[in-house]
Amino acid sequence: MLAPIAARGRATAGEWNDGILAGSALAIGYTRPTVGLGYTNSATSAFITYRLVVFVPRLGMIFFRRRPHPVLLVAVIIAVVGLVLLTRSGSGRSPFGWGEVLTAGCALAFAAQVVILGATAYRHDPVRRGPPRNHPGAT
Question: pTM for the whole thing?
Answer without folding.
Answer: 0.70
